[in-house]
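hiii, so i know i said id send this last week but things got crazy w the move. better late than never?? heres the sequnce for the chain we talked about at the cafe, plus the structure i predicted for it. fair warning i was half asleep when i ran it
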Amino acid sequence: MNKLVSPYYPPRARWYSPVSNAAAIVRRRLCLDRIHLPDGISLGAFVVGLLAPGLAFYVRGEILIGRAVLIGCAFLAIFFLIWLGYPLANVTFGLILSAHVSSILFLCRPWLIETRFRVQIAFGLAVLALVGGGVYTPMRNLIQERYLMPLRVHGHVVVVQTFSSPQSVKRGDWIAYSLPNVGLTGIRLVEGLGLRPVLAVAGDRVQFKPGAIEVNGVSQELLPQMPSAGELIVQEKQWFIWPELDISGRGDAASAMFHLATVPETQFIGKPFKRWFWRRQVLL
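okay and structure toks below
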């Protein structure tokens, strides 16, 4: 015999009812129940419109404009990579950010069309701060820290691949590495970055002689500020790299530079590309 459900008895509360009730209270307290999506736009479409510049125009039915914005931003992203580290890259970065903010404002236009002008300006600035400071700037910093880092060397930019490992470094390779902030007698060395070739790796024997330096018996040209006598054995997980520094002070510059010449693997940042797109990178 089938049980009849009486319309006079409400259904039993579900196990998740306390959570739903709490969510409803929070929504009323924050006045979120007064916020409604623009007509004809679902929640999923609204979220998609926020993801990339130009998608908001697709969501609102402006297909041609949305396609033009997407294609334009794709080209701008390519220009950003090509001219990474140059002022043009900053310009293209700003244009992509502006296109994304404009797309979001177009998506939210039905909410703003009847508001005061100062409210629209404040909303636009808030979207710019949120998208720029919360998405674009961290994304750019992440790219430069983990993948590509532009370094300015002697007036030009060198792009370094920061995803390479220290174990891949061989004698003669150019690497980018961090310089510690070290204070020696009469000399102050400011923390920064170096881009120099690896003269010797772990286990190599380095000998200094008048007018030359020998690495495992192979003679090389003596670099500026190098000592003319002495020797060392490069220890494990270290490289011998002669730095190029502007030293301020009246102390022993050779001793200061020799102090920085032994570079541990922990200071490794990456290896520069030989070419960046069509440009041959000048390291000297």
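btw Residues 183 and 217 are 33 Å apart (CA to CA). thought thatd interest u
miss u guys!!
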